[in-house]
Design goal:
Elements lengths: L1 E3 H17 L3 H13 L3 H20 L9 E9 L3 E3 L4 H13 L11 E2 L6 E2 L7 E7 L4 E8 L1 H4 L3 E5 L5 H11 L8 E8 L2 H11 L6 H5 L6 H14 L14 E9 L6 E8 L5 E6 L26 E4 L5 H4 L7 E10 L2 H12 L14 E3 L24 H10 L4 E4 L5 H9 L3 E4 L5 H5 L2 E8 L8 E15 L8 H7 L2
Parallel strand pairs: 1-3, 2-6, 9-10, 13-14, 14-15, 15-16, 16-17
Antiparallel strand pairs: 2-7, 4-5, 7-12, 8-11, 9-11, 14-19, 17-19, 18-19
Helix pairs in contact: 1-4, 2-3, 6-9, 11-12, 12-13
Length: 495
């Protein structure tokens, strides 16, 4: 049998489409368990939104998260494989990525930029993928195709410890420094040993395994590595970070560890988290055609609805600072009215315009408005907008004081914690910071009733939009008095 080029391309493209809207059953089951155990109301609500969003995405076959990821592919090529192809395997994989991300029925957000040091120009089709290949015995090709969101990828940690240093202590020290931008609850991958790059690769590879920590907990004689996984799982969850950093009992759903022999003088350790949009799929090609992807059992999804009985309805178009001053950290709100979007590149350009005296772009008015940190997926089939969940607000910290001082914005909407200087600026300007649930992008998009680009259209996902929203769910994370729902991270770091 020959492995045909067209089968590789189509299989990779199909896999990326599949994982953009289907969570694996093990992840759904782990999240259902986390929801059932959660006693902290804000965290329980966040997990519920992620589960509702997952089911909506599966039914609508639209991305569960607006960050459709950087593509990671692990390939094991059998030594007896015969190819029928005129492209290299790397080029075949990238063509599959290209076709998946430009699919007209379900276009995925292109997030990859070339020339990362200078122009950072978007490649428009999310290529190239990050590909790891291995030659093994056999006559087939095994693939693991993953789409890794940057909110979690940015939280990777690495250190070379002394040989007698305690890995558990280092991991528990690092977890709070990761904040909530990786969208917990999720899976923590750990690589120990080898060399620097081997440890990082093992941490990433470990995330491709299924969630099985509950099975490990039931084993009568777990291995040393399994005992370490169980210990770390318990200790990380006991930190109380919780879903979206809102507190609670479920920060991680599983802890994965891979190790490798190392130099006697070294102990390389890496951590990489996987977020609430855990997306990976395993398949093989043996020359018999395109890979058959797993059938989806919709019964695995729980029957949940959002409980909005405790939410306050807020009219953004009439909101003023006096009303906003009544909000308290942890309040859950349903926003209706006009919001303006903007994320990293837009903020950088806005600051340049303000600093140079140009003022804001024509048609952009932030006065008495909220700015939403988002880069949405393109709309299809009559949608107002594609999935439009929040991006990590911490990256906008360096622009926040300028925006609050010069644009008249009332506040910001994003995900994860803000830095100490930003919280002081929010208090100074009597603004506020609200969080939407990372991992609930498709659900959030349904609250957006109108959307139009109003500036920087050439910047793709970084363009500025004006949204009209109705009952968009958010939580007050920093109120106008500077109280901060994510203060738990600072408390943990001070221990």
């Amino acid at each position: 049998m020959k492995i045909q080029q067209k089968h590789v391309i189509e299989s990779v493209a199909n896999a990326l489409q599949y994982i953009s809207y289907y969570h694996s059953p093990d992840f759904i089951q782990a999240m259902v368990s986390a929801h059932e155990k959660e006693t902290h109301q804000s965290a329980k609500n966040a997990i519920a939104q992620i589960l509702i969003n997952s089911k909506m995405s599966a039914i609508g076959q639209r991305p569960m998260c607006q960050d459709t990821g950087i593509v990671n592919v692990f390939v094991e090529v059998g030594m007896d494989v015969v190819w029928e192809a005129d492209l290299s395997l790397e080029d075949m994989i990238n063509e599959g990525v290209r076709q998946a991300f430009t699919n007209k029925n379900n276009p995925l957000r292109a997030s990859i930029v070339k020339d990362p040091l200078f122009s950072r120009t978007n490649t428009k089709d999310n290529t190239p993928a990050v590909i790891h290949m291995k030659v093994v015995l056999g006559n087939k090709v095994d693939f693991i195709v993953a789409a890794k969101g940057c909110g979690s990828e940015n939280k990777a940690k690495f250190a070379v410890l002394q040989p007698d240093d305690n890995v558990t202590d280092w991991v528990l020290k690092m977890i709070p420094t990761m904040g909530a931008g990786w969208c917990p609850p999720g899976v923590i991958g750990i690589g120990v040993g080898g060399s620097a790059e081997k440890a990082m690769l093992m941490a990433k590879e470990s995330l491709m395994e299924s969630i099985d920590i509950q099975d490990i907990a039931q084993k009568p004689n777990p291995s040393h590595l399994e005992k370490l996984r169980l210990e770390l799982m318990e200790k990380i969850n006991n930190l109380g970070i919780g879903a979206q950093g809102l507190g609670g009992v479920s920060t991680v759903l599983d802890v994965k560890i891979k190790d490798y022999p190392s130099h006697a003088a070294s102990q390389a350790v890496a951590i990489i988290p996987n977020c609430a949009a855990t997306r990976h799929l395993h398949f093989s090609l043996d020359g018999l055609g395109v890979a058959q992807l797993p059938a989806v059992d919709m019964s695995v999804y729980p029957d949940l609805e959002m409980d909005t009985s405790r939410y306050k309805k807020i009219n953004l178009d009439t909101l003023n600072k006096a009303q906003m001053n009544q909000w308290q950290v942890g309040d859950t709100l349903l926003l209706t009215g006009t919001i303006i979007t903007g994320r990293d590149a837009a903020h950088k350009r806005l600051k340049q315009m303000l600093d140079s005296g140009q003022g804001l772009p024509k048609g952009v008015d932030f006065n008495n408005k909220f700015i939403y940190y988002v880069g949405p997926v393109a709309a299809v089939n009559g949608e107002v907008i594609g999935p439009a969940g929040p991006t990590t607000a911490t990256r906008m910290d360096k622009f926040t004081d300028t925006m609050l001082q010069n644009t008249g914005i009332l506040g910001m909407i994003g995900k994860a914690e803000r830095g100490e200087a930003t919280i002081k600026s929010i208090k100074k300007h009597q603004a506020s910071y609200l969080i939407a649930v990372g991992g609930a992008a498709y659900l959030i998009s349904k609250s957006i009733k109108k959307a139009k680009k109003i500036a920087f259209e050439e910047m793709g996902m970084e363009a500025i939009y004006e949204f009209e929203v109705k009952d968009m769910p958010v939580t007050v994370a920093v109120d106008s008095q500077g109280e901060n729902i994510h203060a738990i991270f600072n408390n943990l770091l001070d221990r």
